[in-house]
Amino acid sequence: MIVSHLELADFRNYESATVELEPGPNLFVGSNGQGKTNLVESINYLATLSSHRVSTDQALIRQGRDAAIIRARLEHAGRQVLVEVQLNRQGANRAQLNRAPAKPRDLPRQVRAVLFAPEDLALVRGEPSGRRRFLDQLLVQLTPRLSGVLADYDRVLRQRNSLLKSARAARVPSSGLSTLEVWDERLIDLGSEIIEARGRLVSALRPFVGEAYTAIAGRTQTAELASELSILGAQPDEGAEVSEQSVRTEIDRAEAVAAFTAAIERNRRAELERGLTLAGPHRDDLLLRLNGLPARGYASHGESWSFALALRLASAALLRAESPTGDPVLILDDVFAELDETRRGRLADAVAGYEQVLITAAVESDVPPALAAHTVRIRAGRIVSPEETT
After folding, report:
1. What is the C-alpha separation between 39 and 28, in angstroms, rounded?
2. Is 36 annotated among the ligand-binding residues?
3. What distance in Å separates the CA atoms of residue 286 and residue 222, rounded to the nearest whole number?
4. Domain locations in the chain as residue ranges
5. Is the entire prediction scored with pTM above 0.70?
6. Which residues are in the RecF/RecN/SMC N-terminal domain (predicted)?
7. 31 assigned ligand-binding residue
8. Does residue 326 have a known ligand-binding role?
9. pLDDT average per 10 residues of sequence, the chain (390 residues)
10. 103 a known binding residue?
């Protein structure tokens, strides 16, 4: 799949922008703060319905405007699809597919993209929440219906936490909380489906991560993934040491239901004391290991950077292998400035076969010439014409 045409209106620092994109590599060049990342962020938004830099859509709308529009023409196997989303300050966002009204959640079914940015270093060094978000966004791209499952789980979790907090404030004993059992059952049902799906995803990603890490780092180091599960006693959000009893690659639905049920019963007193649900996919972690050691805390800066990049390249490889819409659009945001010349060449080789690669750089010479065949120059929220660059 490729994005052949992109239009923006009042998105970030763009009053309006129109850019034609080519198959293969496309390089966006401009000084820092001119809007390079904003362009590629817009395409990634169509695929994930979220920004990799901010938690709400409000920051994506140009200052002083009520709405922003992202419109893109996608091409795959001779078929074209026009997708559009309107981000609103007031009211719900709106979407269109081929000019017909659609729901925003329908867009990721059409758009496949994988973005790597400097913020992704937090996938290795940051908190578990970032790694959970990484897995869930990829899950939704592979299986869009899981978006509803994840949303339902979050809703049930909020309701259950609210009940636990009310019970704590009123000092209600657990024997008097019959309503809690209803929420327990729903939490376990939805949560077990998420845990099983994440486990399958981790297993599918593992070989791709190992291959990508070796391709980037240029030496054989064992990069591995596993799931650290709170229903088996893990406490990653509280900084507890990794317990091997809680580490799994995959877990099936029936085993997850049994373990989740036992965890709910085991944690009942503590949950009532704290007013918080202490086990479930919202408390799990993706465990990253390099040569058998947890990458968080043991990997060097260069190793952490390579591991984060390997996670994104592995995601792209998995989408390529399983998606009926062809390759995902691979986006490399300000990546090459962080790499030495040797690793730049390795990365260029690793992405050379993708249908479309979008790259941003402040310094054109940082990017290998093979990836600069089609260059778009950005200045102050404008696409600069060739005449203006001469």
Report:
1. 9
2. yes
3. 16
4. 1-112+338-390
5. yes
6. 3-364
7. yes
8. no
9. 96 95 95 92 93 91 96 93 96 96 90 92 94 94 91 96 85 66 94 97 95 85 92 87 85 96 94 93 96 90 92 96 88 90 90 94 92 92 73
10. no
